[in-house]
Design goal:
Elements: E1 3-7, H1 9-18, H2 25-34, E2 39-43, H3 53-62, E3 67-71, H4 75-84, E4 88-91, H5 111-122, E5 128-132, H6 136-144, E6 149-153, H7 155-159, H8 165-181, E7 185-189, H9 197-201, E8 206-211, H10 213-222, H11 224-236
Parallel strand pairs: 1-2, 1-8, 2-3, 3-4, 4-5, 5-6, 6-7, 7-8
Helix pairs in contact: 2-3, 2-11, 10-11
Bound molecules: pyridoxine-5'-phosphate (PXP).
Length: 246
């Protein structure tokens, strides 16, 4: 059964829109945990457009479940990770002009550099996950650079039309199987919603799904605790007969 990591960046997005102190992602992370979040995920971007250094420091002190720090593979971020000691570091590609993370990392193009970054982070006991597309070459390279986990990018599946969803889903399934055969542990995320999450939760060996936008959007209507509770229920009890939503 997969677990649920809740990405709370969007709470900080609302705060930063007004450059004020509310809503506070640190205070609200607690409500996500009450709703059943198995972990809290934040992306500390280089331009600090949503999560701030202060948020990360306080979350390190207050998160009771598990803290997953998404970050670019830069020297600054490595130092922050080593000072903060989250339960997991997920390395993501980062472009300033993008609205959200747009695609997986190219491990093959940066093997030597990433191997060094992963060694630095893992030497302080923090397992590293690499956010990648379900691509055989990237998976093999992820194993070579010494990652413990990979997070499969589900964005293409999420965006695919109803006709193309089975194909995109099969790529994720195949990617998960290859990853496991290489000794990598498997997470997935990006673009997952209440309508499309169940098919991904059903994939064999899927350990954690990282979900942000859809949960925070729903929380406006029902509150964060309830929004997380509803998503957790779908992740834990996915319906086999209801694969891609309506
Ligand atoms: N996983 C990674 C690596 C991400 O960068 C993001 C977006 O910050 C997510 C998961 C969550 O994506 P979404 O907000 O679309 O659920």
């Amino acid at each position: 059964m997969a677990s649920l990591g809740v990405n709370i960046d969007h709470i900080a997005n609302v705060r930063q829109a007004r450059q004020t102190i509310e809503p506070d992602p640190v205070q609200l992370a607690f409500l996500a945990e009450i709703g059943g979040a198995d972990g809290i995920t934040v992306h500390l971007r280089e331009d600090r457009r949503h999560i701030q250094d202060r948020d990360l420091q306080l979350l390190r002190e207050t998160v009771k479940s598990s803290l997953n720090l998404e970050m670019a593979a830069t020297e600054e971020m490595v130092q922050i990770a080593l000072n903060t000691l989250p339960e997991m570091v997920t390395i993501v590609p980062e472009k300033r002009e993008e609205v959200t993370t747009e695609g997986g990392l190219s491990i093959t193009a940066n093997e030597k550099y990433l191997k060094n970054v992963i060694e630095q982070v893992q030497s302080s006991g923090i397992p590293v996950s690499l956010f990648i597309d379900p691509d055989k070459e990237q998976l093999e390279a992820s194993a070579r650079v010494g990652a413990t986990w990979i997070e499969l990018h589900t964005g293409h599946y999420a965006e695919a039309s109803r006709q193309n969803k089975p194909l995109e889903l099969s790529k994720i399934k195949e990617g998960a199987a290859i990853a496991r055969s290489l000794g990598l542990r498997v997470n997935a995320g990006h673009g997952l919603t209440y309508q499309n999450v169940e098919a991904v939760a059903l994939i064999e060996g899927m350990e954690e799904l990282n979900i942000g936008h859809s949960i925070i959007a729903r929380s406006i209507a029902v509150g964060l605790t309830e929004a997380v509770r509803e998503m957790k229920s779908l992740v834990q009890n996915p319906r086999t007969e209801y694969l891609f939503g309506k």
